[in-house]
Design a protein that fits this description.
0% of the residues lie in helices and 7% in strands. It is low in regular secondary structure and 58 residues long. Strands 1-2 form a two-stranded antiparallel sheet.
Length: 58
């Protein structure tokens, strides 16, 4: 995943998202806005336990 992760992203619905910080992200569905997680390009940043690294065989 890219190291150039923005601090804030505006969702298509106009909600300000905070990639990688699910407790403060306005799109988490808990802060009077609709949950935007299923359409978020940075979804996996909120779940570090699923950090997938591709190991290429040479």
């Amino acid at each position: 995943m890219s190291k150039n992760i923005p601090k804030k992203v505006i969702d298509i619905t106009g909600v300000e998202l905070t990639p990688g910080k699910p407790t403060v992200c306005l799109g988490n569905g808990l802060q009077d806005f609709e949950c935007c997680c299923d359409e978020c390009d940075y979804f996996l940043l909120c779940f570090p336990e699923f950090d997938v690294q591709i190991n290429e065989k040479t």
